[in-house]
Records
---
Amino acid sequence: MSTVALPVAQPRVLADVVSKSRLHDISLIIAGALFVGLMAQISIPLGFTPVPLTGQTLAVLVVGTSFGWLRSTLSMSLYTVVGLLGVPWFSGHSGGWHIVHGPTFGYLIGFIVAGAAGGWLASLSTDRRVETNIASMVLSTVIIYAFGVTWLGFNLNVSTETAISLGLIPFLAGDAIKAVLAGVLLPAAWKLVKRNPND
């Protein structure tokens, strides 16, 4: 009597369920959020404005330009949502839903939109040349402040001029430096996401 060998079901491993490229994407999304959270802890309070000087903008520029629009959007969204749920990785070790009612909430929304915009511009190869790369970063920074200053003025119930003087003017010089630093950090970011800037 002959027997028929039946295939033995092998246990499925995580790599079978989620592709390596998808795992890489998830890792980058989490790493981007952690990077912004870490840079947020570089925070210098300024006595004349509720908006501190932080390293967040630099992190958003680097993540947006190097991760692509989708991963960057998801990474910035993860950073914002997790922080609103209570993880204290916003500036000054803050976190929690009360941030929504605070004067700096608009900047967090700006991070998401700016990350997406920076990633989209990078897909058009603006990150291949220094001048277009800096222009892309300047535009991303403008987006952050458009949301941040608008919300700041609304939250504090002050004029547009006052909101600009509190939420934009004090940070212009620092953001110019951040744009240059972001350009320097891009080669390392390209290596992380396995992109070739010469493609």
Note: Strands lie at 43-44, 53-54.
---
Amino acid sequence: MATYEYRCERDGVFDASLPIGTASPSTRCPRCAAPAARVFSAPRLARTPVPLRRAIERAARSAETPEVVTRLPGRRPSRPAPNPVHARLPRW
């Protein structure tokens, strides 16, 4: 679905969500039912947050050249369990 902008002479600008390529040059205003002309404006593009963009790029690179693990990661420093029952669970 794409969002198209229309302008009614009486009520102003409103949006219509329609399948891509099906927007007509005019439509009825949803408030007053008067004819409204389609307005051509800049597309609504959103910038991807940097951490998400890096994760997407890394995933794309790993499809071609996956990272190979040659050894196990080091042990994490142990912290005391907040619940005494959890202290008896095995740690690795």
Note: The beta strands are 2-8, 12-18, 26-28, 35-39.
